[in-house]
Amino acid sequence: MSAKIDANDVGRELGPDGLRAELERRTAEAPDALAPDVQTPSTSTAAPFLPTFTTAGMLLDDYPELRPPVIEGLLRQGETLNTISAPKVGKSWLVLDLAISVATGTPFLGFRTTRGPVLLLDNELHGPTLAHRLPQVAEARGIDLAEIRDSLIIECLRGRNVDIYGLSEYFTEVHRVKGQGFFRLTIIDALYRALPDGFDENCNAAWTRVYNQIDQYADLLGCAFDCVHHTSKGSQADKKTTDVGSGAGSIARAVDAHMVLREHKEDNCYVLEAACRSWPPVPRIGLRWEFPIWRIDESLDCTQLRVTWRPTKKEDTNPPVSTPWTAGRFVAEFVSEKPEVREAIVGRATDRGLAEYRAKDWLSRAVAEERVFIWPAARNRKQRYATLRPDGTGTLDGLDSVGGSRD
What we know:
The chain is α/β, with parallel strands linked by helices. It contains 10 helices and 14 strands. The protein has a 9-stranded mixed beta sheet with strand order 5-4-6-7-3-8-9-10-11, with helices on both faces. It is globular and about 75 Å long.
């Protein structure tokens, strides 16, 4: 039975409210809309999507306020979070601390939490390891183990070969037994071990499907989700918070919040940064590792991030001189008298470890300061950039030194 509605005929008779009610009635009668099971790509890419004709007034009436917080200032009910850092930094200890905090309603690194049951899906650690860690973290936090015995549910998935789509039946059963809204937070540690075989980490479409699936689970359970993920290769100091995660760019856009750990110049110290969709900007937080938990260290200068460097085939094995980037240095290293398209210049800069957005910014600054000139584009061609003007003359004062006085 089809739930299709002819909006031209029915809409004129019923109006927006009546049409919406009729749509809901017909959709409810459709066989493919009866089951709450989450669909997977192996069966159907999505349930049929029909117009709801939701007016602005309906939206305002249905949602008079934002969803309630799970982590105040960071994450709300039904939202998704990426927790990202380099391997072997202590992410699992961090999210275990987070799980205990939410399960007991105690603050997490200065963020207030809303108390509620937590589901931890751990596919990296064995049961004995988790059982050994729990008392250590609880004791360091001053929390009685009795407070989490029934409020923290742990599933050890290591070696069980279940991916994010294979969890569909699992979450459907959780919904059937516990209902919607029982869990406050679900943690997947780590996401890379829940990716399907043959997954292309550099494919935006593949990542979008994964996060769409997680969004369905979040809606089904009515709780927030935290996905533990790892950083991309190379230095993370010069990247945007949303660009630290390994993989295609859709990772940055798919979730509601990012929580990132970047290495500080001081040993055993990191800087926590967050980017949120439904909260004001979050100030950086300096953290010091004091086994078995991370503690806030307000004495740390959160701008002092450690820059790691690895030589490429095109570079020698001597690390670069730690000279600050300026427009003059950018021009001296990446722009020449020969006109080139922006992509070529930015590509050389990113090969040297400069973030793409910063490379574009330095090129724009160089143009504004007349260190670099734009050559008009011929028909069907892109504009080009060079240190010579299109008439063949040079810059106003030539190429400045790397530390030129204008910067």
